[in-house]
Amino acid sequence: MTALLIASLCCIIWVYLLAARGGFWRAAQRDDARPTTGAEDVPLPSVVAVIPARNEATVIGGTIGSLLRQDYRGRLAIIVVDDHSTDGTPAAARHGAAAGNGSDRVTVLAAPTLPDGWTGKLWAMHHGISRAQALPEPPDYLLLSDADIHYADETLTELVRRAVRDGLLLTSLMAKLHCESLVERALIPAFIFFFQMLYPFAWVNRADRATAAAAGGCMLVHCRSLQATGGIEAIRGELIDDCALARLLKDHGPIWLGLTERVHSVRAYASLAEMRRMIVRCAYAQLRFSPWVLAGATAAMVITYLAPPALALFCSGAARLLGALAWAQMALALQPTLRLYAVSPWWGLALPAIAATYVVFMLDSAYQHRRGRGGEWKGRVHRGTSAREASRPSG
């Protein structure tokens, strides 16, 4: 009887996820169509791209080059903020600017000493934005970009077109992540799937929904609106800075988030250890550093993803049938994301094992936080979240 109740609950959960959670699994909120308008047909507000970079010497030159190749006919400048790198990132940035014949449009700054209460990325971003706003002609928009992002030539034109047309305060594209190694093929599509499940993009893009999220690799922000909401300083201690910025701005106007083929991350995750570091850095922050939320999230993952195959393989009768049905539902739900990443559809059947890996990462994230290593990234440990901030609802 207990197995049958659990199996019934699994199926109910998956019916809800498929039918009533914003159609997240369809991966339908996208911006990868052919350009819909020529650059001469759109308003041409000025844009400054701000790129915080910490030990990004191997990738920063390509990012700068892709921005310098944009077909955008408005004013575009680039500010790279070196976040205390030890690998020659500033020199690589200048070399990338020179190789793209854009040295006059690229400024490389050094971030000041990191103050208490700030994450390193946000402090570097704040420094770059402050420089942009101090220009004789401050920009209309800021393009906040990660250092490992490559842009198709029409990307900025299309971002600005959408932002101006819809009056968006924040327009964000979920960069297509690197997905070539075995570890990447196993875990990257599921990462995108789980993100969409947590923040259904269709709900993010509706003004009547409180759901707010963004993808930090590519965010076009209306500059005056950012200033009016308190700027980057208002979220200075956040580890998941992109979603924090989305919540901040959505309280004041519309935002938009979509998948794309135009924007790619070139950061590779060749090993499970590298993927683990990426997930562990922010997973416990997503749970608001709460052991109770962690316990609830773990139980939810077990029931939703791990119980169905266990029921299908080890039970009998109706419990086995319902477990198999729930397993089939989750495998089918992953298919649109697998197609986006050109990964074999058979990975859908492995989603329970993949989810179990993410549960381990989630528990590891809580453990690292407890031992004082929370938010560790590139040799820096996050220490800026107070107990009060950690307990604040995420909205």
Contiguous low-pLDDT stretches (5 residues minimum) are 384-395
Structural class by sheet pairing and helices: alpha/beta
Q: Number of folding domains?
A: 2
Count of helical stretches: 15
| Cα end-to-end separation | 38 Å
Strand order of the largest sheet: 3-2-1-4-7-6-8-5
Shape assignment: globular
What this model shows, in words?
The chain is α/β, with parallel strands linked by helices and 395 residues long. The chain folds into 2 domains: 2-25 and 273-390, no CATH class; 29-270, Spore Coat Polysaccharide Biosynthesis Protein SpsA, Chain A. It has 15 helices and 8 strands. An 8-stranded mixed β-sheet has the order 3-2-1-4-7-6-8-5, sandwiched between helices. Helix 2 packs parallel to helix 3 (89-99), helix 10 (272-286) packs across helix 14 (351-370) and helix 11 (291-314) crosses helix 12 (317-333). The chain starts with a helix and ends in a 5-residue tail after the last helix.
Compact overview of the structure:
With 395 residues, the protein is an alpha/beta fold. It has helices at residues 2-20, 60-68, 89-99, 120-133, 155-166, 182-198, 201-204, 223-228, 241-250, 272-286, 291-314, 317-333, 335-340, 351-370, 387-390, and strands at 47-53, 76-82, 106-110, 141-145, 149-151, 170-176, 218-222, 255-265.
Can you give keywords for this protein?
eight-stranded mixed β-sheet, single chain, 395 residues, 2 domains, Spore Coat Polysaccharide Biosynthesis Protein SpsA, Chain A, alpha/beta, 48% helix, disordered C terminus, globular
